[in-house]
Every structure is written in structure tokens, then in C-alpha cells.
Amino acid sequence: MGNNASPAEALQTADEVFAYLEAFTNLERGLFRPRDYRLERMERLLTDFDNPHLGRLTVHLAGSKGKGSTACYVAAGIAARMPRVGMYCSPHVNDYRERITIDGRAAPDPVILACGRAIYSYVQQQTSDGTQDSHLPTTFELLTLLAFLVFREVKATAQVLETGLGGRLDATNLCKPDLTLITPIEREHTDYLGNRLTGIAREKAGILKTGVPVCVAPQRPVVRSTILQIASERNCPVLWDGRKLGIRRTTLSASGTEFDFRSPAGDRIRARLKMLGETQAENAVLALHALRFLFPDETFDELLPSIVNAGLPGRMELVHFRTDPARLLLLDGAHTPNSIDRLCLAAGSVLGSSITVIFGSVSGKNYGAMADRISKDAARVIVSKPGTFKKSDPEAVYAAFSNNAVPASLALDPRQALEEALSTPHPVLVCGSFYMVSEIRRLCIESAVIDSTINLFGYGTTEARDDAQGPAQTVQPS
Description:
Oligomer: single chain
Radius of gyration: 22 Å
Structural class: alpha/beta
Largest sheet: 8 strands, mixed
Helix content: 25-40%
CATH architecture of the largest domain: 3-Layer(aba) Sandwich
CATH class of the largest domain: Alpha Beta
Number of helices: 17
Distance between the termini: 22 Å
CATH topology of the largest domain: UDP-N-acetylmuramoyl-L-alanine:D-glutamate ligase
Strand order of the largest sheet: 4-3-2-5-1-6-7-8
Number of domains: 2
């Protein structure tokens, strides 16, 4: 990190800001030890930058699955009622800008650049003061700081924050939320969170703050009881505990997810979501309970229209090829046996019974169980390499599929894998990791099959973006 260039010389574009932040020790790359996973660095960052995380309506989410979709629904609902709503989520699929959005659109590059230069100056000062590289903030911590600085610069009135990993010690957990949400919890990231569901639930529920209301998605009994116990200990009003879901019917098609929902008041509501999957209906119901608390004068029926067009890249994202509109490709970052099971059920409803699957899994995942489940439905499987960001062993993954009856092939180059998939007569499903989805989605963007513009809510004005496009203000730590 020893670079004496001025901020203007070192960072000239928003892309260079993200490249600079990515160069730090990154938990996502597996270079970060569990014993170093703490909040002191983040607390100092926020203090030194005069607490940019404070001063706006805040919704905070933790969980294993559905965080991004639920956050998107909540942010879309708030943005329909308040100006300049920031959302911070992870991971991104093709562009870091997906992580930091204002009203569903990428934060303005001039603001990202100004805030990134301020972070650069700060880190340079820390280095000159003798701070060792190993004690400098991680990429995720700096990205979290960047999000807060951006939200302050554009004068965001609200922010929706998704934890990156865990909850209790997550970099986002220094926020002061008005509402917290816990999405479904599974056994994951055991190197950091432990192997027991109760322990994982305690880590996730670590975002609960004294007296702050919480909405809890449907959970396994042991997980729900753990969360409710912590909520009771911290005097957190439980607005909804997920036991009365209210969903009567869910139908999936290429046009979206239709479901009937009975509100707590007994009103029957029919909805169609842009995002696909039975889980999306469940995520939407969780988001509606959150929005009902935030906007108590509105009914569930009145809140619903503002979330139906929300969508995230690489989360049950259905693509119609421009050269062949009848040809479908479904992108989803499912990477656990349970999420793959639910994905396969959804894919069968949307894509039909004969599907070609492009699959790529990073090391440390249960790709054997995923291969067993996918092999029950797929007509063909093509195993590829999910990028280079994390270690992977495509040959071992291919061997797992070879143990099943499904025809399988190995195409390490994602471009070759996509070409091979498109040579079959079947619709295509891409899954196994967000890194695999990222590789294929990038190829679709390059060929203009997918628009690279970030618009997560599917509606709205560009007022917030235009307001922030003027001369970038100077952002400096205090």
C-alpha cells in the first residue's frame, strides 16, 4: 500500500476506486483469519469520518438466504415514498456499483470518486503514521465506509444495509437501525460461524439492538427459538416471527412469480413479482411486514405495487436472447444443497423438463450433494471454472457429476461452456456460485444480450442521480 501519489493522481475513475479497495486484505478471498474478525477497525473508520453511517432511516438485514432480494424489496418500497434511498448489498455479480445504489440505480461516479479519494488519503496517512498493512482495514470494511460516505454525500434520507457475513461482528453492525430483519438461516461459513445452527443464529441475531423492532422470516424451530430468545433479552418488539406466512398459492412462469397472500387482517392479496421463485414470495412477504411498520398508514395492498418490479442481477434472473427470444437462460447464484433444491423446482416450472445446466462451484462447498440434486432433473450438465477470485477444482466437480447418470462435460473456459450450452436445444440454467453466474453474465453483457445499466427497482426517476451529478464535493475525515 506504500504509494505517495496524490489522491487525484492515484484515482481518476470510479473503477480505479474499486480496484484500489479490492487490493486490501479481503475476507472474501479467504485471506482473513477468524480471530481478526472484529469491529474496532470499522468503529475507528466511522469515527474518523465523522460517523457517516448515522442521520437517516436505517433498515438492517442479516441471514443466510434471501438478504439481497429482501433488501431490494424493502428499499424499493421506501424509495416509492421517500427520496434518495441508499442500498448496500453484496456480493456484486459484474460491477461493484451493484453494491452501492441510490433509488435502485448505481451511485454517481463523481461521488464515488470523491469519496474514494478521501479514503485513499486517509489510508495513506495511516500508512505514513506507521500502521502495518496487516492492521489496515479489509476490502469489505472500506466498501462499507464508501457506501456510508456516498449516502451522506447524496443526502440520502434512508439506507437499507445487508450484512456481508455473520452479523454480530459484521462491518455494517455499527449502524443505528430503526428496524432489523432476519432472513432464513442455514448452516454456512462454518469456518467463521461454527457448525451449530444455534451458534450461527446467535451470530446473525447479533444485529439486534436494544429496543429496536425485528421481523423474522420463517425459520427452523431451533433457529426461531434462538432469535426470539435474543430478541426478548434485548427488549426487541417482534413485529412478525414468520410462523403465519399467509401464502396460499405460488405459480411460477417466464413472466414472474404469482402468489396469493392473506394479510394478518385477513385481506386476500394477489401479486406478481418480477423475481422468480417460491422463495421470492416469502422474501416479499417479509419485506411487506417491514414496510407496514415503516409506513403504518398504508395497507399491504397499497404497499405491494412498489416492490413488484424489483430485481437483482444473478438472483433468479431470466434472460431472453435477443437473437432468439424463445430461448431462455436463467442465472442464479445458488450454492448450497438446499438452495439448489429450491432452484431446481423453480427452474422446472419456468424452463420446462429438459434443461442444460452450466455449473461451477468454488472449493469448500458441498458440490457432491448439489450434483446429486441437479442430476435428477438436468438433460445435460456442463461443468466450468467459476472465475479466479476463489479457489475451485472443476475436475473434482465434474467427477461428482460423472458419478450420476446425467450426461456431463468439462469446459473450463466459461465462453466455451456457454457456446456448448447454446448448441443444445434446451433452455439453460447457470448456477453453483455467484462467480460462475458472473462469468456467464459478463459474456451476455459483451454480446449485448443483457443491458449493463443498473436499475434494481425497475421504475422511478433519476432525480437523486441527477442531483448528485454536479461538481463532486470534497469529502475528508474529521
